[in-house]
Amino acid sequence: KDMPMETSPRELTQNPLRKIWMPYKNGLPEKHISQRKVCMTNCPTLIVMVGLPARGKTYISKKLTRYLNWIGVPTKEFNVGQYRRECLKIYKNFEFFRPDNEEGLKIRRQCALSALNDVRQYLCMEGGQVAVFDATNTTRERRDTITRFAEQNGFKVFFVESVCEDPDVIAENIVQVKLGSPDYIDCNTEEAVADFMKRIKCYENSYQPLDEGLDRELSYIKIMDVGRRYLVNRVLDHIQSRIVYYLMNIHITPRSIYLCRHGESDLNVRGRIGGDSGLTSRGKEYAKSLGHFIQEQNIKDLKVWTSQMKRTIQTAEALAVPYEQWKALNEIDAGVCEEMMYEEIQEHFPLEFALRDQDKYRYRYPKGESYEDLVQRLEPVIMELERQENVLVICHQAVMRCLLAYFLDKSAEELPYLKCPLHTVLKLTPVAYGCKVESIFLNVEAVNTHRDKPENVDISRPTEEALLTVPAHQ
Amino acid sequence: MSSEQNELTQTPLLKIWVPWVHSTLSRRRGSSVPQFTNSPTVIVMVGLPARGKTYISKKLARYLNWIGVNTAVFNLGQYRREAVQTYKNYEFFRPDNEEAMKIRRNCASNALTDIGAYFTKEQGQVAVFDATNTTRERRGLILSFAKEKGYKVFFVESVCDDPDIIEQNIMQVKLSSPDYENCDKEEALEDFLKRIECYKMTYVPLDEEKDRHLSYIKIFNVGSRYLVNRVQDHIQSRIVYYLMNIHVTPRSIYLSRHGESDLNLLGRIGGDSGLSTRGQMYASALAAFVQSQSIRDLKVWTSHMKRTIQTAEALGVPYEQWKALNEIDAGMCEEMTYEEIQDHHPEEFALRDQDKYRYRYPKGESYEDMVHRLEPVIMELERQENVLVICHQAVMRCLLAYFLDKSADELPYLRCPLHTVLKLTPVAYGCKVESIFLNVQAVNTHREKPPNVDINRKTEDALQTVPEHV
């Protein structure tokens, strides 16, 4: 076919699972190219939290870690407080944190070093790309130790400092997350709060915030007053830029996010995937029920988002409120398999069907998309959801799984099998370090569209085994 | 039909589902683009002369327009040049020059009036007020104006005390200003520095305490540090993100399509074919070209489609594959010739000619959709330095439109022929373009807008501008 050139270009083959074109030699993939990955940095990054207790460091660490993992950057947080609890076993009271408590200081220093050791292990040997070092790190001395450690190991360092003097915010913080801490298991609320305030005092005297002058060579973001103001210094690369953008878009105002799918569609009842069909009569009933449900919930300033597919828009229309259509919320593109039943896919593309069961997250439909692609296209939706307050997102099965995985910190392996049945609203409310989920079935029957991973995912499996878990349909 | 469940119909051009009420299109509840903001926004530049305000204004406006937010720049210096006609020297800007102060205040007033008109009569969404705005009094004036009209205000202050940067700045853009047409370089430089001194005397920067209720970003020393206060909404958040990603380090961006493909030769659109023989020759020529340019730390990006990757492979250097750089999805028309599209979908073919930017292929994409999907690519291009992007015709048109500030109407007709590299180098307020044809023949894939775009047109009229193919 193609004439070989002098500098014979490598033969390209399309990897059957991900549909990525790769150079092959003697039937084996050649080491070559990078896929566009988010973390466009050539060395691991150490994010170092800085701030007095109860300033939201752990909240930020966990949220940031969740976001980075969701977009495909292997990230892990290392909470020094946990190392301390492991070492000490029993927490007596704030006196442990007194700056003149030699014994305490020794233990705390050891814990920090132990955590850094684990950071090194994670970034150098376990394939981690970002480590979040969650501790007060309030002295310049401690931060210098960390910077030196990072330099020795070839890590980039990015500091995230949280500064807050609002006593209400701090009090709320303590109530939400400190009282439930293992440290205060046997205390009543008053005791716990009093002790914790004294603990904060222990840090205050030696606190050296990041300084515009002295620390001007460092890369950092200073978050002031829960996001009212930010100081950003020397962002070095893409991942730091994304982190800054994310941190500047999150907020802690109480709100709820409602996720649901469109009402049952014509293609749903026929067991066909994809397409752009309208609602069945049960689907329309659901839309009406959704309208009533929303009204009853009495939600302040609710925003409603749909995809650009007929079935979500029909559902939203029944609510009789303004809504926004996002193309990014469209269902996963099944390419050549669009509008097929699973039985037909098995018949015409048994290899594809098996590959999908082998790695449902990375599998890309021929001329279509993968869940991995979906996550990338949904990232701006997540970013805007973070900015917003009360939102109802009317979307699709695969899309809803991706969004849910973000909020509930589900792995890439779990994501494509999350249960998102029709006619069921998931109400997500951020609480403490996570998300409370309420599942509300709106009492209108619908077909089941959830196909579990079958036992046999081999490409040469018999048809019955491939179709074992296909849900019933017309 | 219950009034709550109107029938939906899909608009033929945009392929957007809307409620259909038998006579006219009812007022739609669904907006088809996410709402960036619910009220017009005035971006107010702040800073001494030669701090990059106009550079930022123009760049920001270009970016916002490209992503679909109607934006215009109102440069006070231009108003002043219109009012005063001839610029004598820096004395005009002395703070004790009453006469001049009156003129300058008038100009500011006119500019604000024009901003109001832009919002109300021209569907403007963002106005960039490009002036020094260095006194609290002037900023107060703008805030009152905005409050009265219900506009949001976002300040962008550029602070720089590096004398080298300032001089660079003056050399690049001030010396060629109409103000200094008849001066030699030294005179101009000296005068301009005195002009800056005039402003320094009354300059009150945005203050962390006193201005804590305002929304702003303070940019220090061309981006090494930023102070961001009270971002109010989505568009301000995007603006901050953009400003934090741009830089002024000299570099070049090379845009090219894949080498000629098998489907190109057959006059078929889309698909995922490999390179033709000539396409492979182009890939080798591209490799030689890149080497000859001696580009420092060149990054190479391709799409996920075979033809761009085959092209990159010939370069023998690492490259990154971006799915976002894939060619426009022609949906049901994938791999068809224009003749076949006319044959099977004559109405679609005509609609596309009527509004090529917004037209969405059935089960496919529009240029407008592509701009949204290319936005992260543009953002990363802004962060990077030297990059070679090997992509596709429609994709390249979108990227080029961003760099050359082309409108949505011009964009789908930009010329991006095969086997031609466009080298873009930022200079002054814009972009220098060098077009380098690498001397390997290729088929022409550019189809001009035909004179007759009516859905009832004859086949010959529809196919008039189709380029030749096998």
Q: Short description, anyone?
A:
The complex is a heterodimer of chains A (474) and B (470). Chain A is α/β, with parallel strands linked by helices and 474 residues long.
Describe this structure in words.
- The complex is a heterodimer of chains A (474) and B (470).
- Chain A has 474 residues and is an alpha/beta fold.
- Chain A contains 15 helices and 16 strands.
- In chain A, strand 2 and strand 3 (28-29) form a beta hairpin.
- Chain B is of the alpha/beta class and 470 residues long.
- Chain B is built from 15 helices and 15 strands.
- In chain B, the strands form 3 sheets. Chain B has a 6-stranded mixed beta sheet with strand order 5-6-4-7-8-9, sandwiched between helices.
- In chain B, strand 8 and strand 9 (225-229) form a beta hairpin.
- The termini of chain B are far apart.
- The chains are: A alpha/beta (474), B alpha/beta (470).
- At the A-B interface, strand 4, strand 10, helix 7, helix 9 and helix 10 of A face strand 3, strand 9, helix 7, helix 9 and helix 10 of B.
- Strand 10 of chain A pairs antiparallel with strand 9 of chain B.
Shape of chain B: globular
Mean pLDDT of chain A: 93
User: Which stretches of chain B of 5+ consecutive residues score pLDDT under 50?
Assistant: 23-27
Strand content of chain A: 15-25%
Beta fraction of chain B: 15-25%
Cross-sheet strand order for the largest sheet of chain A: 6-7-5-8-9-10
Give me the count of strands of chain B: 15
For the largest beta-sheet of chain A, the strand count, sense and barrel status come to: 6 strands, mixed
Order of helices and strands of chain B: EEEEHEHHEHEHHEEHEHHEHEHHHEHEEH
Largest interface: A-B, 67 and 66 residues
Cα separation of the termini of chain B: 53 Å
Family (chain A): In the C-terminal section; belongs to the phosphoglycerate mutase family.
Binding site for substrate (chain A): 261-268, 311
Protein name (chain A): 6-phosphofructo-2-kinase domain-containing protein
Keywords (chain A): ATP-binding, Hydrolase, Kinase, Multifunctional enzyme, Nucleotide-binding, Phosphoprotein, Transferase
